[in-house]
Each structure stands twice: as structure tokens, then as C-alpha cells.
Write a structure and sequence with these properties.
Layout lengths: L9 E2 L6 E17 L2 E14 L3 E4 L9 E7 L8 E8 L4 E8 L1 H13 L4 E8 L3 E2 L12 E4 L11 E11 L23 H29 L1
Parallel strand pairs: 4-10, 5-7
Antiparallel strand pairs: 1-9, 2-3, 2-8, 3-5, 6-7, 6-11, 8-11
Length: 223
């Protein structure tokens, strides 16, 4: 992807995960009225940051310092995966990460939040975020800037999707973000295997297809 007025190209599908760390988890309960029906609504809110890397927006200056974190349960029986959406809210200038989890996971986390046993949360996800082309093959020890894309009008940031591959929580508070360890010398690294690299890209493309289908099923289930 190239953007007018922005130097360099942006690509997707690098062989590394987005890592989010969340804290200050709290339960928010209420009711919502849809299609003349009143139903109970429950979500978990908190604050998050990208661990090791940074999150920005293509075509805009600056990176996220704090990300609004919201976890919601999926409709019962609709999906067994943990889905992630990332976006930017222009109305209050904030980044937003929403997790859609199976009911069994949401209920377990809710129970621990209420009991004070879930003060921090961490997750690893494969996403459709963008990175600069020269960062695509960066060593895991080197930080990269993940970016939200642009809407077709070029005025607003586009949302991104993700598939969470692991999630855990504990009662220990998350440590303050620290600088990543220095990278090992490039001379000591083995050259990339082109076959392995191609397999990673195919695997990433397959996960993105699964994501699109999963979100379509969620929309149908909610309706």
C-alpha cells in the first residue's frame, strides 16, 4: 500500500504477533433494547498498550500511548475463536481494541475480575495491521510500528481485524512498558528460508480469510 504524501510502502502479513497488555479491568453491566426486546448487556473495560512495539495510523502523526480495551461475549454457540478489532475514534481521539470472546471465556474472566483475581491481561494476535515494508522482516528483538490503514476517502483511519491465538490474565499488575532488549548482531543470524517465508504468508492469508468469515457469522448471529 502506498499513500500520497507518505514516504515508503506499507505491507501486511509479517511473521510476528501483536502483543497487547491490559490492566485496570472492570465489569460494566446494564441493559440494551434491540428490536423491541430488552436484554442484559455486560462487558469488561480496561486500558491497554502494545508490548514491545507501537501502534500508529498511516497518514497521521503520533502513536498510541493508551488504548481503550473492551471485551464482549459472542452470541452463545456462534464462535469458538477469540476475535479482535482495532480502530480509532475521531470523536474523542482515542485508539480502541475490542475483543469478542466465547461465552465460557468471558464468564471465567468476569468471575476473576469481580473477585480481584484479574488485574492484568495479555494476548497475542495475528492481525491485518500494516507495517512499513522495510520493517516486515525485522528481528523480533527490534520494535516495529503497527498501523491502522486509511479509509478510501483518505480522511479517516480504517479498522483492523485480528485473531487472538493466546490470552491469559492474573492478579499481578502489569509492569510499565520498557525498552526492548538490544538486537543481536545481524551477522549471527541465519538467512531467511524463502520456503518458510512463503508458508508464513500463506498461513497469514488463510487466517485473514477465517477472520472475515467469522465476523460475517457474528453479524448474522447478532441480527
Amino acid at each position: 500500500m502506498t499513500i500520497a504524501g507518505v514516504a515508503g510502502r506499507f505491507v501486511q502479513g509479517i511473521g510476528r504477533h501483536l502483543r497487547l497488555e491490559g490492566q485496570n479491568l472492570r465489569l460494566v453491566s446494564g441493559f440494551a433494547s434491540t428490536a423491541e426486546r430488552l436484554r442484559e448487556s455486560c462487558r469488561i473495560e480496561g486500558e491497554a498498550h502494545v508490548a514491545g512495539d507501537r501502534l500508529g495510523r498511516v497518514g497521521f502523526e503520533g502513536v498510541a500511548s493508551t488504548i481503550v480495551l473492551v471485551l464482549r461475549p459472542l452470541p452463545a454457540g456462534s464462535e469458538t475463536r477469540i476475535l479482535l478489532t482495532l480502530g480509532y475514534r475521531d470523536e474523542d481521539d482515542s485508539y480502541l481494541a475490542e475483543l469478542w470472546t466465547p461465552v465460557v471465556l468471558f464468564e471465567a474472566l468476569k468471575r476473576d475480575v469481580v473477585a480481584g483475581a484479574a488485574r492484568r491481561l495479555s494476548l497475542n494476535a495475528t492481525t491485518s495491521l500494516w507495517v512499513r515494508e522495510d520493517e516486515r522482516d525485522a528481528s523480533p528483538a527490534l520494535p516495529v510500528v503497527w498501523n491502522l490503514g486509511l479509509e478510501p476517502d483518505g480522511q479517516r483511519s480504517a479498522g483492523a481485524r485480528g485473531l487472538v491465538e493466546s490470552i491469559d490474565w492474573s492478579s499481578a499488575l502489569a509492569e510499565s512498558p520498557t525498552e526492548p532488549p538490544p538486537a543481536a548482531a545481524q551477522d549471527d543470524e541465519e538467512p531467511d528460508d524463502p520456503v518458510s517465508d512463503e508458508l508464513r504468508r500463506i498461513n497469514w492469508s488463510f487466517k485473514q480469510l477465517i477472520l472475515v468469515l467469522a465476523f460475517l457469522l457474528i453479524v448474522l448471529a447478532i441480527k
